[in-house]
Amino acid sequence: MGTSIYDYIIVGAGSAGCVLANRLSANRRNSVLLLEAGPRDDYLWIHIPIGYGKTMFHPVYNWGFYTEPDPGMNGRKIYWPAGRGLGGSSSINGLIFIRGQREDYDAWRDAGNPGWGYRDVFPYFIQSENNQRGASDYHGAGGPLSVSDIAGKHELMEAFIEAAGKLGVPRNHDFNGESQEGVGYFQLTTAKGWRCSTATGYLRDAIKRDNLGIQTLADATKIVFEGTRATGVRYRVPGKELEARAGKSVILCAGALQSPKLLQLSGVGPAPLLAEHGIPVVRELPGVGENLQDHLQLRVLFKCSKPITTNDDLASVWRSAKMGMEWLFRRSGPLAIGINQGGLFTRVLPESKTPDIQFHFATLSAELAGAKPHPWPGFTMSVCQLRPSSRGRVTITSADPLQAPAMQPNYLSTDLDRRTAIASVRFARRIAETAPMRDYVTEEYRPGNAAQSDDEILEFARNYGATIFHPTGTCRMGRDAMSVVDHRLRVRGVEGLRVVDASIMPTLVSGNTNAPVIMIAEKAAAMILEDAAQA
Ligand SMILES: Cc1cc2nc3c(=O)[nH]c(=O)nc-3n(C[C@H](O)[C@H](O)[C@H](O)COP(=O)(O)OP(=O)(O)OC[C@H]3O[C@@H](n4cnc5c(N)ncnc54)[C@H](O)[C@@H]3O)c2cc1C
User: Fold this and answer.
1) Rounded to whole angstroms, what are the CA distances from 272 to 149, 284, 396, 399?
2) Type and span of the H or E element at 359
3) Quick check: is 374 catalytic?
4) CA distances from 139 to 93, 95, 175 (A)
5) What is the phi/psi pair of residue 445, to 5°?
6) Residue 95 Cα to ligand 1 middle (Å)
7) End-to-end Cα separation, the chain, in angstroms
8) How far apart are alpha carbons 347 and 356 in whole angstroms?
9) Do 509 and 97 contact (CB within 8 A), yes or no?
10) Residue 135 region, left (φ>0) first, then alpha (ψ -120 to 50), else beta?
11) Taking Cα atoms as reference points, which of 514, 518, 525 lies closest to residue 338?
12) Active-site hit among 47, 139, 470, 487
């Protein structure tokens, strides 16, 4: 087995891993190895936003996980895509740029995590950002992550905004500005019509540094420990088993599904689970894999009265050609948008002090997110609860590192989550019944008029609910016995090991998770460099 030595070994080149690879290798005295299970990101459809539909079920660039049968979903296994390859999920995501609410981060701080309040984390959001609107009180310019406005307006989006306005939801030009509440167009992580994944934003230049090694097609199989100190990583590349040693630290960035898996495989996790699979315990940490949280999306689908939807564009050769031209010459039009044009944040429960649901509005409809569009004009109001209280878990099913872990989301397992699901579908219907939106609706295709009572709406949620792709929380930051990392993201009770990705979130943020994960990695890089300077 060949062995090489680095200061830092980063496992996983996704949203977080690419940020760390860049920031840690910026100091030429640090040697850094970035291990990624998937390939390089040289598939064209990764980079053209509408390619979202091409990567959603891709056998190479997507892990294509399924959850365990979920009782809350009437026993269905839910499809859970996750990016595989440079950029990770930021290479296949819906490109929506949302930071969440300031209260999300203040709650992290108040739960015992100093340094994670909104004021503390805000500079790291700004540092990462290169917003087309330029620098302002709420935005950064010149950072690695490009953020752009959607060029042009869509008749359906305008109708949605106006109808929501009549229901008291104000127009919002910046969901990442003073207030999240409101309705409007999203900003996207794109630059001139191209996707800006973290591989594009953070690795494109860093890749040339000779102190940064990037190894793709490298499945990390185990963290190597000497006593309780992490000293390296064992990994497989096609045909070979290799080991790299880390002089300073190993940093897990394998995402909320695979970072806990790798910890468990390496002997850090719940003792009974490790014993079941014959894995010697390095450090018992019962919280590894627990606290799984996700946003459940309920896709309310409508047939549209006018052939103006993306379904119609894609069904026509001429209109498809026009879309292609729009993208080629103006970098605009449907090809420059992943899927959702705009959104809405509002409150549907009387006890909520801040928005408790988010809408994703798409001028397109399909049976599943990212699947082939319907053969009729259609649009989607996808609604999700922002702060679910249901909790699930991720557990290994064998000691074989190439086996997917079992993922149990436990969607809709609390009264709060069920009440919010029902109220959110009812709110979507109210918008659809309000002028001018109602002029565009010929029929509510799903759930359909037959679903009227709370129980019937809940049954729709159980039969058709799906993920909006935000699994988080499985290596929770905190200071109690069930937390996995401390506020500096060091794995509790061992040395030389950190987790830096979506899994460290104590609670899910109120919005999409890519920008928050990038912020987490920016802050982690600063802490790691600070620790090294003090050592
Ligand atoms: C289909 C989809 C749509 C989404 N849409 C949006 C959106 O519009 N806006 C938004 O803000 N968020 C969105 N998200 C969520 C967001 O992209 C993720 O929360 C975020 O990218 C997670 O970052 P991460 O670094 O934790 O994990 P990832 O980016 O998933 O990175 C983990 C990396 O680790 C690698 N890896 C895993 N195990 C190993 C191993 N053993 N060895 C080596 N490498 C390994 C993986 O291949 C992957 O590259 C979406 C996600 C998906 C999947």
Assistant:
1) 50, 9, 12, 14
2) strand 357-362
3) no
4) 22, 17, 11
5) -75, -40
6) 12
7) 31
8) 5
9) no
10) beta
11) 514
12) 470
Report the nearest-CA residue for atom 21 of ligand 1.
89
Beta strand ranges found along 2-58 (DSSP E): 3-11, 32-35
DSSP lists the bridge partners of residue 268 as 283
Ligand 1 atom at minimum distance from 502 CA: 26
Partners of residue 250 on adjacent β-strands: 9, 497
* Confidence band for 461, pLDDT divided at 50, 70 and 90: very high
Q: 117 near 207, Cβ under 8 Å?
A: no
- pLDDT, tens digit, for every residue of 223-267? 999 999 999 999 999 999 999 999 999 999 999 999 999 999 999
Judge if the beta carbon of residue 383 lies within 6 A of ligand 1. Answer: no
Q: Count the neighbouring beta carbons within 10 Å of the beta carbon of residue 513.
A: 26
Which of 34, 80, 89 for mutating ligand 1's site (highest number of atoms within 8 Å of CB)?
89
Any ligand 1 atom below 6 A from CB of 501: yes
Strands 296-304 and 466-467: antiparallel
| pTM assigned to the model | 0.98
Instruction: Give the whole-angstrom CA distance, residue 340 versus residue 374.
Output: 16
Given a contact cutoff of 8 angstroms between Cβ atoms, the answer to whether 273 and 237 are in contact is no
Instruction: Please check the confidence at residue 2 and state whether its pLDDT lies above 70.
Output: no
Q: Rounded to the nearest whole angstrom, what is the distance from the C-alpha of residue 88 to the centroid of ligand 1?
A: 5
Tokens 């499809």 identify what position?
A: 79
How many whole angstroms separate alpha carbon 420 and alpha carbon 416? 6
Rounded Cα distance, 292 and 368, in Å: 23
Report how far ligand 1's centroid is from the alpha carbon of 115 (Å): 24
Q: At what angle do helices 415-432 and 454-464 cross, to 10 degrees?
A: 100
pLDDT, tens digit (0-9, with 9 covering 90-100), for 331-357: 888 888 878 999 999 999 999 999 999
Q: Strands of 371-468 (E only): list them.
A: 378-385, 393-395, 406-408, 441-446, 466-467
Question: Quick one: pLDDT at residue 331?
Answer: 85
Q: Is the CB of 220 under 6 A from ligand 1?
A: yes
At residue 3, the pLDDT reads 65
456: its two tokens: 């019937």
- Tell how far the Cα of 189 is from the centroid of ligand 1, in angstroms: 14
What does the alpha-carbon distance between residue 379 and residue 373 come to, in Å, rounded to a whole number? 10
Question: Mean pLDDT in the chain?
Answer: 96
Atom 46 of ligand 1: nearest residue by CA position: 84
Q: Which two tokens stand for residue 377?
A: 């004009």
Q: 405 CA distance to ligand 1 centroid (A)? A: 16
Q: Is the pLDDT of residue 9 over 90?
A: yes
Distance CA 340, CA 493 (A): 43
Q: Is 515 in the pocket of ligand 1 (CB under 6 A)?
A: yes
Q: Which two tokens stand for residue 201?
A: 């934003």
Per-residue pLDDT tens digits for 401-430:
999 999 999 999 999 999 999 999 999 999
